[in-house]
Structure formats: C-alpha cells, structure tokens
Specification:
By secondary structure, the protein is mainly beta. The chain is about 10% helix and about 30% strand. The chain is built from one helix and ten strands. The longest helix is centred in the last third of the chain and has 17 residues.
C-alpha cells in the first residue's frame, strides 16, 4: 500500500487535486485509489502519473524476543519502548502492567482502571515491581494533606462587557 497526492483531477469527478489517497498498484501504470487503507474500498482505477507518491516512513524494527519471567500475581511499572506502526496513538512512556505469560495488560493509572491494551512483554523494558508499601505511603500522604491543609477558593466572576438578554 502506498500513499500519494492527487496532481490531476481532470479525469475524475471523485478525486480532488491536492488531496491524499491510498494507492494500490494495478499493473505498472495504474493504481486503485481509496480514501481508506483498504483495497476493496477503492473509488476507481487511475493512471499512475496522476499521483505523487509519498516516501514511506521508516519504522524501527521490533525488539528481539527475549524471555522475561515475571510473577503474574504482581503489578509492575515498565517503559513501553516499541509498538506496531498501526498503534502510533499509544505513547512510548511508563505504564503499569499485569503480566500474562508472554504478554502484558498495560494500564495508564496505578489503580489499574484505565486499560490501554495487551502487548508482548518484549515491547517493554525496565520492569519494577509496584509494592503495597509504595501505595500505602502515597495514600498516607494524601490523607495527611486532606486533614492538615485546607484549600480556600473564591468564586470570582469576570465582567465580559455584556449581559444576558432576558426574554420573559
């Protein structure tokens, strides 16, 4: 699958000049053209000279599969170092993980309520066990903050220079 920009829309009513499309080769001089990354959803077959092809983005290779033995009953904190090209929306950062064999469910929060998905363990590195002592210390700090510190806020309304019109 290639991507390209339409240079000439004179031979089609469905193509727009300057718009990006997915291109699927049909012989050496033609492309099936689609708005979606699916060959079966094409809008027609057009000459190759109607499109300027994007240079394909280089994607790093998947890390080597290595044996990682973690206790499936424990929660770990680890850094996601790689993901497939289709998962660009998943950030490469630290997550809380629950290992399950060769894979792990990863979570955005320590309470394990916002699951991000399930990826192979070799996509993660820097495994650190999350212990209950760490959680208890942070809970004590929050309770201490709530008991000793009071936050006062004032309800300040800004003047915007206009008033709401009352009809009734």
């Amino acid at each position: 699958m290639l991507q390209g920009i339409c240079l000439d829309d004179s031979q089609s009513a469905v193509l727009a000049k300057g718009k990006s499309y997915y291109l699927f080769p049909n012989g050496s001089n033609h492309y099936y053209v689609s708005k979606f990354p699916n060959k079966n959803a094409h809008t027609g077959c057009y000459e190759a000279n109607m499109f300027a092809i994007y240079e394909e983005e280089l994607w790093p290779e998947e890390p080597e599969i290595r044996k990682i033995e973690l206790d499936p009953e424990k929660v770990y904190k680890a850094s996601l170092i790689w993901r497939r090209q289709g998962y660009q929306s998943t950030e490469l950062k630290e997550y809380y993980i629950e290992p399950k064999g060769t894979h792990a469910y990863f979570f955005h929060d320590q309470e394990l309520t916002r699951c991000g998905g399930c990826y192979p363990l070799h996509w993660f590195t820097g495994f650190v066990e999350v212990t209950e002592e760490n959680e208890q210390v942070s809970e004590e700090m929050v309770l201490e903050f709530e008991e000793n510190d009071h936050i006062y806020t004032e309800d300040v309304q800004e003047f915007n220079g206009y008033e709401q019109l009352s009809l009734f």
